[in-house]
Amino acid sequence: MSSPTVHLVQGFGSTAFLFPFVGESAVVFGLSVILIDIDHVIQYTEDTKSLNPKGFFVYFNFIDHNLFRRIIDKDYFCLNIFHTIECYLLLLFCGNSFPIFYYVLGGFLFHHLFDQIYMIKQKIPFARAFSILEYYMRKKNKITSMREILKKE
């Protein structure tokens, strides 16, 4: 939920900080901090049926700065698959066989921590599902797409 610029800075900064300690694995960590947000592209594509990169940024800017602010606190609920406990558990499991996945997991959790801090400051800490199961249990009577937001307005 933080801006792409913030995540780029976090990714490059964490890579620079960790590199002296863990070497090239720091690059994996830093890229993971940034690339976790690919799930937002999935959300955008599913909602708009478009792959237009310009539209992606317009879409999320609109959500974040306009209608989103008025209704998200009680009605909006989304699922970003790479920001869920199931994804983190899968990465942990894969890390047992391929240790590089521990760095991916670390990058994802680092990113999610800052997203959650941002959402708490915005007073919307539960607008994103922490689990796929939670999403399907709580999505009833919630707005889960931009189309629904525009219909409501």
Main pleated sheet: none
End-to-end span in angstroms?
Answer: 22 Å
Q: What is the overall silhouette? A: globular
- In N-to-C order, the SSE pattern is HHHHHHHHH
Detail the poorly predicted runs.
Answer: none
Q: Share of helix among residues?
A: over 70%
Strand content: under 5%
Instruction: Give the structural class.
Output: mainly alpha
Question: How many helices?
Answer: 9
Average pLDDT number: 88
What's the gyration radius in Å?
16 Å
Number of strands: 0
Describe the fold and architecture.
The chain is mostly helical and 153 residues long. Helix content is 71%, strand content 0%. It contains nine helices and no strands. The chain has helices at 4-22, 25-35, 38-48, 53-65, 67-71, 85-97, 100-121, 132-138, 146-152. Helix 1 runs antiparallel to helix 2. It is globular and about 50 Å long. The mean pLDDT is 88.
Blueprint of the fold:
Elements: H1 4-22, H2 25-35, H3 38-48, H4 53-65, H5 67-71, H6 85-97, H7 100-121, H8 132-138, H9 146-152
Helix pairs in contact: 1-2, 2-7, 6-7
What brief labels describe this structure?
single chain; 153 residues; mainly alpha; globular
Short précis:
The chain is an all-alpha fold and 153 residues long.
